[in-house]
Design a protein that fits this description.
Blueprint lengths: L2 E5 L5 H9 L4 E7 L4 H17 L4 E3 L3 H9 L3 E7 L10 H8 L2 E5 L22 H13 L2 E3 L5 H10 L5 E5 L13 H9 L3 E4 L14 H15 L4 E3 L10 H8 L31 H10 L4 H19 L6
Parallel strand pairs: 1-2, 2-4, 3-4, 4-5, 5-6, 7-8, 8-9
């Protein structure tokens, strides 16, 4: 099983064929950054057209069983996620409606303070809000995963404690390895993984030590050190691959409609566009390089298989359905 639990590519037939060439069984695809409910539905409509146009390459997945179907039929399962709670606006009832439409991951904040939690770029983090507690409970009930990838430390730790089901950090790296604002300190990673949650390693260059020049060996050694601390069972990949996106998309990701100023985020003040990817991971055909790099660190085949997708698959199986009564 090969799963990448976060991409935001400029989706096309070329990328879908690269997924198949790379043997990628499932991808968690971002369908909203700052979109409201109606705009998110329009993005789902676009995906529905792609599912109709390329039925031999991709299919929507709402469950682990759908991932099994995709794998058995030589397709890539697409799992919807949102990097902001903006699609639910201020209406908790939209959580269940979006789950019905296929949304399986939702971040409680994207860099800034939201109605639910604090983003990692804020100076102060008061933690999960009153509405945030209610939304976490509703996400737990219907089977939508709480994602804290862009959230601040206290909010993330509180979310892991409040949630009755395991949560996720779908795309980040350890702060001790590279101290980017978006990367996570050990106590944050531990709070998530000790409660049964998942941590996905990112290949977005601003999250890497050395940026685009980060070596495969350094990246895989970082994963190996994290596995020693937190165990391999709760680790996977969330590459944050933004393949073929125009530079203008960075502005939407960072700015949305919340400011009149340009805020491209950390690490990109002198390069407002997308940074180049490392030469060992350009697209979905390059996952074999990561698997080989993990083996070179001394990991056994079962550990490598888990990180390359088996752990995310197990998490899907346990997380996407309604809570047991």
């Amino acid at each position: 099983m090969l799963i990448d639990n976060l991409q935001y590519a400029n989706w096309s037939e070329t990328i879908f064929r690269q997924m198949r060439a790379g043997g990628v069984d499932a991808v968690h695809a971002t369908i909203a950054y700052h979109e409201n409910f109606r705009e998110t539905v329009l993005n789902i409509e676009k995906w529905n057209r792609d599912f109709e146009r390329f039925p031999d390459l991709i299919m929507q997945a709402r469950s682990a069983a759908d991932v099994d179907t995709a794998k058995a039929t030589g397709r890539t399962a697409i799992i919807f996620g949102a990097q902001n709670p903006s699609p639910i606006e201020d209406d908790i009832g939209l959580v269940e409606i979006l789950h019905t439409l296929g949304l399986r991951f939702m971040q409680l904040s994207y860099n800034n303070q939201s109605l639910l939690a604090t983003g990692c770029y804020e100076a102060d983090d008061p933690g999960i809000t009153r509405m945030g507690r209610q939304v976490i409970a509703e996400m737990n009930r219907v089977g939508m995963v709480v994602d804290m990838s862009h959230s601040a430390d206290r909010s993330t730790i509180e979310a892991a404690e409040i949630s009755t089901r395991p949560i996720a950090i779908t795309h980040a790296n350890p702060h001790v390895w590279h101290p980017a604002l978006r990367n996570k300190r050990d106590d944050v990673i531990r709070a998530v993984t000790e409660n049964g949650g998942m941590f996905g390693f990112s290949i977005y260059p601003h999250h890497l030590r050395g940026g685009p020049d980060c070596t495969l060996q350094d990246f895989c050694e970082m994963i190996a050190r994290a596995a020693e601390k937190f165990g391999t069972a709760h680790l996977g990949l969330g590459t944050d691959l933004c393949q073929d996106q125009p530079d203008s998309v960075v502005e939407w990701m960072r700015v949305g409609r919340w400011t009149k100023q340009i805020d491209y985020g950390e690490g990109s003040a002198n390069n407002p566009g997308f940074p180049p990817m490392p030469d060992w991971f350009k697209d979905n055909r390059d996952f074999g390089n990561i698997a080989a790099g993990l083996r070179a660190t001394g990991m056994d085949e079962a550990e490598v298989a888990g990180i390359m997708g088996g752990n995310w698959y197990r998490f899907y199986r346990d997380s996407f359905g309604p809570a047991s009564v």
